[in-house]
Amino acid sequence: MYADTQNDITRQVVRVAQLLLAYGAESDLVEEISQRLGRALGLGSVELSISSNSLVLTSLVHGRCITTTRRIREHGINMRVVCELQRICLLAEKGLYGPNEVRKRVERIRPKTYPAYLVIPMIGLSCASFCHLFGGDWMASVITFVASAIGMSARLFLARRHFNPLVIFSITAFVTTAVAQLGYECPLTKTPELAMAASVLMLVPGFPMINAISDMVKGHMNVGISRWGHATLLTVASVIGITIAMQLGGKFL
Amino acid sequence: MNLLITLINDALFSAIPAVGFAMVFNVPRRFLPYCALAGALGHSFRTLILHFGLPIEWATFAAAALVGTITIAFARRHLAPPLLYAVAAIIPMIPGTYAFNTVIALVQLTAQSQVSPELTGAVISNGLKTVFILGALSVGLALPSLLYFRTRPVI
């Protein structure tokens, strides 16, 4: 293999690994996919070192190493991209895709998201179902639906303007709790506290927490700890929003 | 009969959040029904075990292991990563209320001038439940790959 070819293939493999990490795959999956893709495209071996915000990859062919570093910026979770990259890896492994096809298909990937008019009502319904599962009455579920739908629209609005995730989480928590407190004001429901607890559940950073623990269990200690730290920070940010709303409402403190 | 109605109610109302959060994670549309199925099965299985009097941590662990096994079957069929289904499916089991109660008690504790034993107790017991249920969830989810797929990839 020529040095140029190795360079090109290494760049594609590192691009795939970078995309996987940016869109929220766990470290074990990233390592597995990039090693399999590299071997399928003809590299001797691929070694990765993943840290919280960067990635170092070394490819080895005939005793010649190429090492390259990439910075990773979080883009939010998008399973569509992860799924697509896994597909590309499998196709390359079966021999259907060579380096050129892989490059074309990776370039074509767009992180499509669901439109807001679908996501907002679904999140409202989800939080209303949580309220129902916790034993809240029907009116509490309705209040939860309204509060979390308004909160989710605020979250999408802020996310489109590229605010820091911590700021987004606090403002969303504030808005959601402020609306959910209406359950205390008007005597519609007997379980206003459940409405309040259920409507902020959309802010629980479930994906980062599960990723963090499964990274740590599978031996990627530093990435796991940094993801855990990020998840904790997000939780603290939403707690700050909830607390401010509660203090303004005068319910607890 | 009562148990059956509870289980169906459970399955129905945990399938909705599974789909809702799967949409937040941008799971492709053709996989959404499988997320709903895995979420409904997992949560109603946990309710069934809780009905027989097991503690919630063990029930969550068993339910997460079930979700992990089902999603590996889905993943092998569709050639997609198993976490795609699994994370949306276990969202209904995330200990949100325990976490919420921990934090509220913590905030109330901060606002007071002296430490009160009730609030400290609430922080400790709710916080421990949160951490252990979360641990049970993710270790249960990883169980198939820890026990069975040790040296080979899932797909």
From TrEMBL, chain A:
Its main location: membrane. Signal peptide: none annotated. It comes from the Bacteria. Residues 13-248 form the Threonine/serine exporter-like N-terminal domain. Pfam families: ThrE. It is a multi-pass membrane protein. The chain crosses the membrane at residues 114-135, 141-158, 165-184, 196-216, 228-248. The keyword Kinase does not apply. Keywords: Cell membrane, Membrane, Transmembrane, Transmembrane helix. It is found in: Cell membrane. InterPro entries: ThrE-like_N (IPR010619), ThrE_Dicarb/AminoAcid_Exp (IPR050539). Belongs to the ThrE exporter (TC 2.A.79) family. This is Threonine/serine exporter ThrE family protein.
UniProtKB/TrEMBL annotation, chain B:
Belongs to the ThrE exporter (TC 2.A.79) family. The keyword Membrane applies. Its main location: membrane. Keywords: Cell inner membrane, Cell membrane, Membrane, Transmembrane, Transmembrane helix. The keyword DNA damage does not apply. It comes from Shewanella jiangmenensis. Coiled coil: none annotated. The chain crosses the membrane at residues 6-24, 58-76, 83-111, 131-149. Residues 11-146 form the Threonine/Serine exporter ThrE domain. It holds the Pfam family ThrE_2. InterPro entries: ThrE_2, ThrE_Dicarb/AminoAcid_Exp. It is found in: Cell membrane. This is Threonine/serine exporter family protein. It is a multi-pass membrane protein.
